[in-house]
Amino acid sequence: MRAVLVDDEPLAIQELEYILSKISYVKVVSTFTDAMAALKFIKVEEPDVVFLDIDMPQITGIQLTEQLKKEGALTQIIYATAYDEYALKAFDQSALDYLLKPYDEERIYAAVLKLKHRGPQQVYKAPKSALQRLPIWMGEKMLLINFDEILYCSVENNKAKVYTEKMCYEANDCLVNLEDKLPADRFMRTHRSYIVNLSKIQEISPYFNNTLVLKIEGSKEEIPVSRSYLKAFKSTMNIN
User: Fold this and answer.
1) Tell me, what CATH number does 146's domain have?
2) Are residue 146 and residue 176 in the same domain, yes or no?
3) Is residue 92 part of a domain?
């Protein structure tokens, strides 16, 4: 297993490299304190895993990972950082694991073993139901919205929005990605422009062309069920 270590603190790299040297099937092929140099190396050499700090100058570990994802890299990412507030974003990016400094050897062994069992192209995602909240980016801040508070999501003027009874949040994301982050047993796509919280549906009424329209609790908006989603919606709601 070929590993690369990226951290702007040389002592942190030395400590992690020492711990990994005890694992027979892990080979540290290179280390970097410069994130931009690391990015160039990873693109060319395609190591199996990168142990990546987050808070670095030039570009952050999160930004480095985003760049690798855009280019279709299969390298797995294990974040290694002193800051736990980045955990949700890390798992949102499908990071394999998230290690906190100071390092715990057993946690590092467990993370490496996870990669060994999963294989280099398999990705770990935090279970949606475990979070019980939808993480969305608004500008440079991440907000966590409880699933129970969400009435529906929509696309308006090419911008995804998340509606609660009290607020409308404009997300820096597309509706497809929001749908992927929501639990399928609680939320459903009813139209190319709408996702609804099934528990918030108050009324279902006939609409033109044998489609339906939904009245949502806490909202005056009427949500259409288009013909493309009608069969699945009726099945979910036990409508004959």
Assistant:
1) 2.40.50.1020
2) yes
3) yes
pTM greater than 0.70 (yes/no): no
User: Both 60 and 101 in a single domain?
Assistant: yes
Q: Which domain holds residue 163?
A: 128-236
Distance CA 145, CA 147 (A): 6
Residue 68: count other Cβ atoms within 10 Å of its Cβ.
Answer: 20
pLDDT mean across residues, the chain? 85
Q: Which range, of 107-116, 196-205, 211-220, averages the lowest pLDDT?
A: 107-116
Last residue in a domain, options 118, 143, 168? 118
In which region does residue 202 sit, left (phi positive, over 0), alpha (psi from -120 to 50) or beta (all else)?
A: alpha
> What integer pLDDT is reported at residue 154 of this predicted model?
94
Residue 178 reports pLDDT greater than 90 = no
How many domains in the chain? 2
